[in-house]
Amino acid sequence: MSLLSDFLAPRKRLLRQAREIRQLKKELDALQARNASMSEGMRRCINCEYRIDFKNRQGQAPVKISNP
């Protein structure tokens, strides 16, 4: 019986590792998507584009940005 378990142990470990890798890839994808979204938000915030977009969508006068 121990011979069979010795034979199957590596296969069981590989299956467990494959499952963990799939889970970690899902987490990585979710974190990368969140990071990209936050980076885009910060880029827009820094460039003040969100204010321009908001004002234009509200029908107000466009905001002019002066470059020093």
Structure overview:
This protein is mainly alpha-helical and 68 residues long. It is built from 2 helices and no strands. The model has no long low-confidence stretch (mean pLDDT 78).
Which descriptors would you attach to this protein?
rod-shaped, mainly alpha, 68 residues
- N- to C-terminal distance: 80 Å
Q: Structural class, please?
A: mainly alpha
Helix content: over 70%
DSSP helix count? 2
Low-confidence stretches: none
The helix/strand order is HH
Number of strands: 0
Give the averaged pLDDT, no decimals: 78
Q: Which sheet architecture does the biggest sheet show?
A: none
What percentage of the residues does DSSP assign to strands (E)?
A: under 5%
Tally of structural domains: 1
C-alpha-based Rg, rounded: 26 Å
What overall geometry do the principal axes of the alpha carbons give?
A: rod-shaped
Indicate the topology.
Layout: H1 2-47, H2 49-57
Task: Summarize this entry quickly.
With 68 residues, the chain is an all-alpha fold.
